[in-house]
Design brief:
By secondary structure, the chain is mostly helical. It is 72% helix and 0% strand. The protein has 7 helices and no strands. Helix 2 packs across helix 3.
Amino acid sequence: MNLGARLRTLRHCRRISQTEVAQFIGITRSAYSHYESNSRQPVYETIIKLAAFFNVSVDYLLVGEDPQAVKEPSEEQDLNEILYLLKRMDGEMKKRSIHMINALVKESLSNVKKEG
């Protein structure tokens, strides 16, 4: 498996689009598409951003030899993704989203108390 195939697999595992990856790491969708198709190679800084975004090592991206390459998203990744989404929303949508998150947390905590 090559770099492009690994990037494609990682992106599919997270169920996100090329546009979302590109926006998050600060490149165009077209540039990212070239990386997945192996028609271009990312620069060093972009490889580091991609590894951090996908929560894998640079070694895994480049040579595929990290036995723990695909990990569950870290709390920091989850927070970064939430912040990324909130930044794309207008004020009212942010308020509604935060209200929904609060309601989900309260419901979750209530369920835990009932089970415990």
